[in-house]
């Protein structure tokens, strides 16, 4: 199997490397700085975490824990590629899964947490110095990446949160249930453990994101062909925030229509 890395700004193929003849990757994480790739290999039992250096295109760590397997779909990597966090479970044991953090500079176990309930979502921020995870009991936990202590237990959702989005500085996060059992979208201040805003749309939504600065929520509502943007005006007004808004992408392309059919390519 091969892995291709593409530059999102230019669309150019940056690098291709071979991960092995008999590997089947079931997850793929790339750090924001483009230096580290972490993937899960479904062909090996129990599931390991494979860490690749994208500059040298070499496998640097094969992370395993005896009698345990990583739930690789529940994993995240820090923007700087320093840490990877993953949910892990003990084989042949029905007890709740737990959380593992590895230091990717040394390949060593950095933190291990065992919440009261199994985890169903995970996120990490080196800049914010925290790990955030959603539990099956509907709680959202905030862990301190340095001390390992639990900072906050965030309550308010009526169903387990399976999606977490963090802003660039790691100070705010967005949580929601993509399965629609709880239609509310919540934005939290993870430095204070406070809920900043809650929005429950009348329609189901198909996607939801938090802006890089943590000041806007972008929603795709089912049945609508437009994107809905919510501004967080907790300490300001809509009129104050409007002048700060900038056009996404190239302003010259605003309102232009493109024919993407094959006949016109």
From TrEMBL:
It comes from the Eukaryota. This is Putative WD repeat-containing protein. WD repeats lie at residues 154-198. Gene3D superfamilies: YVTN repeat-like/Quinoprotein amine dehydrogenase. SMART domains: WD40. The keyword Repeat applies. Keywords: Repeat, WD repeat. Signal peptide: none annotated. The lineage of its organism: Eukaryota, Metazoa, Ecdysozoa, Arthropoda, Chelicerata. The keyword Repeat applies. Transmembrane segments: none annotated. InterPro entries: WD40/YVTN_repeat-like_dom_sf, WD40_repeat_dom_sf, WD40_rpt. SUPFAM superfamilies: WD40 repeat-like.
């Amino acid at each position: 199997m091969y892995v291709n890395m593409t530059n999102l700004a230019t669309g150019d193929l940056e690098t291709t490397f071979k991960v092995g003849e008999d590997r089947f990757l079931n997850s793929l994480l790339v750090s924001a700085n483009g230096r580290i790739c972490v993937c899960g290999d479904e062909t090996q039992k129990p599931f390991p975490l494979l860490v690749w250096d994208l500059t040298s295109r070499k496998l640097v760590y094969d992370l395993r824990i005896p009698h345990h397997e990583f739930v690789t779909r529940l994993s995240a990597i820090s923007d700087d590629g320093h840490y990877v966090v993953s949910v892990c479970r003990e084989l042949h044991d029905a007890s709740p899964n737990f959380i593992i953090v590895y230091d990717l500079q040394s390949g060593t176990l950095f933190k291990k947490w065992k919440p009261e309930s199994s985890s169903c979502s995970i996120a990490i921020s080196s800049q914010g110095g925290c790990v955030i995870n959603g539990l099956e009991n509907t709680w959202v936990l905030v862990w301190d990446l340095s001390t390992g202590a639990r900072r906050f237990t965030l309550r308010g959702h009526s169903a387990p949160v399976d999606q977490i989005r963090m802003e660039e500085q790691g100070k705010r996060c967005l949580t929601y249930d993509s399965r629609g059992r709880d239609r509310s979208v919540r934005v939290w201040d993870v430095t204070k453990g406070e809920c900043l805003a809650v929005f429950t749309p009348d329609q189901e939504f198909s996607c939801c994101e938090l802006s890089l600065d943590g000041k806007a929520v972008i929603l795709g509502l089912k049945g609508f062909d437009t994107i809905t943007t919510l501004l967080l005006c907790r300490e300001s007004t809509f009129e104050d925030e409007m002048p700060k808004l900038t056009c996404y992408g190239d302003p010259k392309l605003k309102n232009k229509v493109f024919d993407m059919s094959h006949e016109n390519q």
